Amino acid sequence: MSHPPKLRLGVNVDHIATLRNARGGRIPDPVRAALLAIEAGADGITAHLREDRRHIRDDDMARLKAAISKPLNFEMAATEEMVRIALATRPHACCLVPERREELTTEGGLDVVGQHNALAPAIARLGEAGIRVSLFIAADPAQIEMAARLRAPVIEIHTGGWCDAITEGHADKAAAEWERIVAGARLARSAGLEVHAGHGLDYATAERIAALPEIVELNIGYFMMGEALFVGLAETVRAMRAAMDRGRARLGTAA
Ligand code: PXP
């Protein structure tokens, strides 16, 4: 492929807020992190306003929207409260995710097959307001087909299972998850969906997934914030960008 589609890097700043909230004050500020990440090459900023406000708070979303020059991706559950906040904030995009209070992070994808009746009005209201809606789902054919039927313009493939299998040394599971992601990305693209991916990605997994031409955006947070503690956020963003570029250069050669 002579002109590979650009692969965007969305930097998730949730865990700057996690650290700030450990002391309940104003530092470190996720808005400062967002500005620094953009200066270092991030194509967008992602933040998840959870129901329990454990990291990002309402005023963070408003401040991010006001301060950043790149697209803001507002991750949220498809609840009435969150839809209302998103409509008031007017981010570039909303990524709808499942949410349970007791989970440590977003553990699985949205069940769009089981919840299509509940999701359809949220997708429609956000879309009518000019907000690009993405659905965070597993690379499962039934979920992908339902996402297309619901006319969501974008899906984000949940890469957490694949990344965990690699970390835990389960090679067979990692290979099966990878095949599912490759097939899911192809199916989604052929159904007219824009395809993103995220959750649990590090330099190695981001480089590998960058070789899938259907995927045009990666959203990455936790690993990058951990690295940033040691080498700085700007250096981490540059290193992630370089890993993604190396992977993109192998476009179409991913096995
Ligand atoms: N994409 C979505 C939809 C997420 O919920 C998360 C976690 O907030 C991420 C990407 C980023 O995952 P991680 O922090 O593991 O990189």
UniProtKB/TrEMBL annotation:
Gene name in the database record: pdxJ
Biological role: Catalyzes the complicated ring closure reaction between the two acyclic compounds 1-deoxy-D-xylulose-5-phosphate (DXP) and 3-amino-2-oxopropyl phosphate (1-amino-acetone-3-phosphate or AAP) to form pyridoxine 5'-phosphate (PNP) and inorganic phosphate.
Localization of this protein: Cytoplasm
Quaternary structure annotation from Swiss-Prot or TrEMBL: Homooctamer; tetramer of dimers.
Species classification: Bacteria, Pseudomonadati, Pseudomonadota, Alphaproteobacteria, Hyphomicrobiales
HAMAP family found in the cross-reference section: PdxJ (MF_00279)
Main location class: cytoplasm
Residue(s) at site: Transition state stabilizer: E156
Keyword Magnesium tagged: no
Pathway this chain belongs to: Cofactor biosynthesis; pyridoxine 5'-phosphate biosynthesis; pyridoxine 5'-phosphate from D-erythrose 4-phosphate: step 5/5
EC number: 2.6.99.2
Leader peptide range in chain numbering: none
Stated name of the protein: Pyridoxine 5'-phosphate synthase
One GO MF term: pyridoxine 5'-phosphate synthase activity
Entry keyword annotation includes Ligase: no
Family: Belongs to the PNP synthase family.
Amino acids binding 1-deoxy-D-xylulose 5-phosphate: D14, H15, R50, H55, T105
Catalyzed reaction equations: 3-amino-2-oxopropyl phosphate + 1-deoxy-D-xylulose 5-phosphate = pyridoxine 5'-phosphate + phosphate + 2 H2O + H(+)
Gene3D superfamilies registered for this protein in UniProt: Aldolase class I
Keywords annotated in UniProt: Cytoplasm, Pyridoxine biosynthesis, Transferase
Residues involved in 3-amino-2-oxopropyl phosphate binding: N12, R23, G200, G221, Y222
InterPro entries found in the cross-reference section: Aldolase_TIM, PyrdxlP_synth_PdxJ, Pyridoxine-5'_phos_synth
Active site: H48 (proton acceptor), E75 (proton acceptor), H199 (proton donor)
Annotated PANTHER family: PYRIDOXINE 5'-PHOSPHATE SYNTHASE (PTHR30456)
